[in-house]
Amino acid sequence: MKFPLDVLCVRTGTFCPVCRAKIQEGKVTQTDIDVIKVLIDIPEASKMEGEYVKSIKTERGIWVVIKGDISEAQARSLGRSMSRRLKSRVRVIRYKEGEIEKLIASILAPHQIVGMSRRYIFEDLVILKIFVRLKGRKSRRSLDEEREIISQLIGMPILIEEV
Ligand SMILES: [Zn+2]
User: Fold this and answer.
1) Residues 71-119: pLDDT tens digits?
2) Which of 52, 91, 108, 130 is a good FRET partner for 143, with 20 to 30 A between their CA atoms?
3) Contact 65, 95 (CB under 8 A)
Protein backbone atom coordinates (compact mmCIF):
# COMPACT_ATOMS: atom_id res chain seq x y z
CA MET A 1 0.00 0.00 0.00
CA LYS A 2 1.17 3.50 -0.80
CA PHE A 3 1.09 6.25 1.81
CA PRO A 4 1.24 10.05 1.60
CA LEU A 5 4.10 10.03 4.13
CA ASP A 6 7.34 8.05 4.18
CA VAL A 7 7.01 4.91 6.26
CA LEU A 8 10.33 5.65 7.96
CA CYS A 9 9.22 9.17 8.90
CA VAL A 10 5.98 7.87 10.44
CA ARG A 11 7.81 5.10 12.25
CA THR A 12 10.44 7.35 13.81
CA GLY A 13 8.23 10.40 14.28
CA THR A 14 11.00 12.54 12.78
CA PHE A 15 9.63 13.96 9.57
CA CYS A 16 11.72 14.89 6.54
CA PRO A 17 11.06 18.28 4.86
CA VAL A 18 8.72 16.71 2.26
CA CYS A 19 6.54 15.02 4.88
CA ARG A 20 6.69 18.06 7.14
CA ALA A 21 5.41 20.28 4.33
CA LYS A 22 2.42 17.98 3.77
CA ILE A 23 1.59 18.12 7.48
CA GLN A 24 1.99 21.89 7.68
CA GLU A 25 -0.20 22.43 4.62
CA GLY A 26 -2.88 20.34 6.27
CA LYS A 27 -2.83 17.70 3.52
CA VAL A 28 -2.00 15.15 6.17
CA THR A 29 -3.55 15.43 9.63
CA GLN A 30 -2.67 13.99 13.03
CA THR A 31 -5.47 11.45 12.50
CA ASP A 32 -3.77 10.36 9.27
CA ILE A 33 -0.46 9.95 11.08
CA ASP A 34 -2.08 7.87 13.85
CA VAL A 35 -3.82 5.66 11.30
CA ILE A 36 -0.78 5.23 9.04
CA LYS A 37 1.32 4.31 12.07
CA VAL A 38 -1.05 1.42 12.74
CA LEU A 39 -1.49 0.45 9.08
CA ILE A 40 2.24 0.01 8.39
CA ASP A 41 2.39 -2.59 11.14
CA ILE A 42 -0.48 -4.67 9.81
CA PRO A 43 1.08 -7.31 7.52
CA GLU A 44 -2.03 -7.72 5.33
CA ALA A 45 -2.12 -3.96 4.71
CA SER A 46 1.45 -3.72 3.51
CA LYS A 47 0.82 -6.57 1.07
CA MET A 48 -2.31 -4.89 -0.33
CA GLU A 49 -2.41 -3.06 -3.62
CA GLY A 50 -3.80 0.36 -3.09
CA GLU A 51 -3.22 3.81 -1.84
CA TYR A 52 -4.09 5.38 1.46
CA VAL A 53 -6.16 8.51 0.78
CA LYS A 54 -7.42 10.00 4.01
CA SER A 55 -8.87 9.34 7.44
CA ILE A 56 -11.62 11.31 9.04
CA LYS A 57 -12.31 11.14 12.73
CA THR A 58 -15.78 11.70 14.10
CA GLU A 59 -17.06 11.35 17.63
CA ARG A 60 -18.15 7.82 16.79
CA GLY A 61 -15.05 6.50 15.10
CA ILE A 62 -12.59 6.75 12.25
CA TRP A 63 -13.36 6.43 8.56
CA VAL A 64 -10.39 5.39 6.43
CA VAL A 65 -10.50 5.86 2.67
CA ILE A 66 -8.30 3.59 0.58
CA LYS A 67 -8.02 3.89 -3.18
CA GLY A 68 -7.50 0.86 -5.36
CA ASP A 69 -8.61 -2.66 -6.05
CA ILE A 70 -9.27 -4.00 -2.60
CA SER A 71 -12.19 -6.32 -1.97
CA GLU A 72 -15.03 -5.73 0.45
CA ALA A 73 -13.75 -8.67 2.54
CA GLN A 74 -10.25 -7.16 2.69
CA ALA A 75 -11.70 -3.81 3.69
CA ARG A 76 -13.70 -5.41 6.51
CA SER A 77 -10.83 -7.42 7.84
CA LEU A 78 -8.56 -4.40 7.72
CA GLY A 79 -11.20 -2.39 9.57
CA ARG A 80 -11.33 -5.03 12.31
CA SER A 81 -7.55 -5.12 12.79
CA MET A 82 -7.41 -1.35 12.93
CA SER A 83 -10.33 -1.09 15.36
CA ARG A 84 -8.49 -3.37 17.76
CA ARG A 85 -5.23 -1.46 17.51
CA LEU A 86 -6.70 2.04 17.58
CA LYS A 87 -9.33 1.11 20.21
CA SER A 88 -11.91 2.93 18.16
CA ARG A 89 -14.54 1.96 15.62
CA VAL A 90 -12.80 1.96 12.23
CA ARG A 91 -14.56 1.66 8.91
CA VAL A 92 -12.56 1.22 5.72
CA ILE A 93 -14.10 2.80 2.64
CA ARG A 94 -12.93 1.73 -0.80
CA TYR A 95 -12.49 4.27 -3.52
CA LYS A 96 -11.70 3.86 -7.20
CA GLU A 97 -10.44 6.77 -9.25
CA GLY A 98 -13.29 8.87 -10.60
CA GLU A 99 -15.97 6.89 -8.81
CA ILE A 100 -17.01 9.54 -6.37
CA GLU A 101 -20.67 8.53 -6.56
CA LYS A 102 -19.82 4.97 -5.58
CA LEU A 103 -17.76 6.32 -2.71
CA ILE A 104 -20.72 8.34 -1.48
CA ALA A 105 -23.00 5.33 -1.93
CA SER A 106 -20.72 3.11 0.14
CA ILE A 107 -20.62 5.67 2.92
CA LEU A 108 -24.39 5.94 2.97
CA ALA A 109 -25.02 2.19 2.67
CA PRO A 110 -27.37 0.49 3.43
CA HIS A 111 -29.45 3.53 2.55
CA GLN A 112 -30.16 4.03 -1.11
CA ILE A 113 -29.27 7.15 -3.06
CA VAL A 114 -32.13 8.11 -5.35
CA GLY A 115 -30.66 11.33 -6.66
CA MET A 116 -28.01 14.00 -6.30
CA SER A 117 -27.99 17.59 -7.40
CA ARG A 118 -25.72 20.57 -7.10
CA ARG A 119 -27.33 23.73 -5.83
CA TYR A 120 -25.77 27.11 -6.24
CA ILE A 121 -26.51 28.99 -3.05
CA PHE A 122 -24.62 32.19 -3.61
CA GLU A 123 -22.10 32.94 -6.37
CA ASP A 124 -19.46 30.24 -5.93
CA LEU A 125 -21.00 28.56 -2.91
CA VAL A 126 -22.23 25.19 -4.02
CA ILE A 127 -23.88 22.51 -1.96
CA LEU A 128 -24.50 18.94 -2.95
CA LYS A 129 -27.93 17.70 -2.17
CA ILE A 130 -28.30 13.96 -1.82
CA PHE A 131 -31.70 12.33 -1.82
CA VAL A 132 -31.73 9.17 0.19
CA ARG A 133 -34.22 6.40 0.81
CA LEU A 134 -33.66 5.00 4.29
CA LYS A 135 -33.05 1.27 4.55
CA GLY A 136 -32.31 -0.91 7.51
CA ARG A 137 -32.22 0.14 11.12
CA LYS A 138 -29.69 2.96 11.03
CA SER A 139 -30.70 5.92 13.10
CA ARG A 140 -31.06 9.46 11.86
CA ARG A 141 -28.14 10.43 14.02
CA SER A 142 -25.84 8.27 12.01
CA LEU A 143 -26.76 10.19 8.87
CA ASP A 144 -25.29 13.33 10.42
CA GLU A 145 -22.00 11.54 10.74
CA GLU A 146 -22.16 10.38 7.14
CA ARG A 147 -22.96 13.88 5.97
CA GLU A 148 -19.87 15.19 7.76
CA ILE A 149 -17.66 12.48 6.23
CA ILE A 150 -18.87 13.07 2.68
CA SER A 151 -18.57 16.80 3.09
CA GLN A 152 -14.96 16.55 4.30
CA LEU A 153 -14.04 14.12 1.55
CA ILE A 154 -15.39 16.08 -1.37
CA GLY A 155 -14.83 19.49 0.19
CA MET A 156 -18.36 20.69 -0.30
CA PRO A 157 -21.29 21.24 2.06
CA ILE A 158 -23.77 18.39 1.90
CA LEU A 159 -27.47 18.27 2.48
CA ILE A 160 -29.08 14.88 2.89
CA GLU A 161 -32.77 14.71 2.27
CA GLU A 162 -34.85 11.68 3.00
CA VAL A 163 -37.43 10.77 0.40
ZN1 LIG B 1 9.42 11.91 4.95
Assistant:
1) 889 999 999 999 999 999 999 999 888 888 888 998 998 899 999 998 8
2) 52
3) yes
Taking the C-alpha atoms of residue 49 and residue 28, their distance in angstroms, rounded to an integer, is 21
Q: Which CATH number fits domain 100-162: 3.30.300.20, 1.10.1370.30, 3.50.50.60, 3.40.50.300?
A: 3.30.300.20
Distance 25 CA to ligand 1 centre (A): 14
CA 77–ligand 1 middle distance (angstroms):
28
CB 128 within 8 A of CB 157: yes
CATH 3.30.300.20 in the chain, residue ranges = 100-162
Instruction: Record the pTM.
Output: 0.83
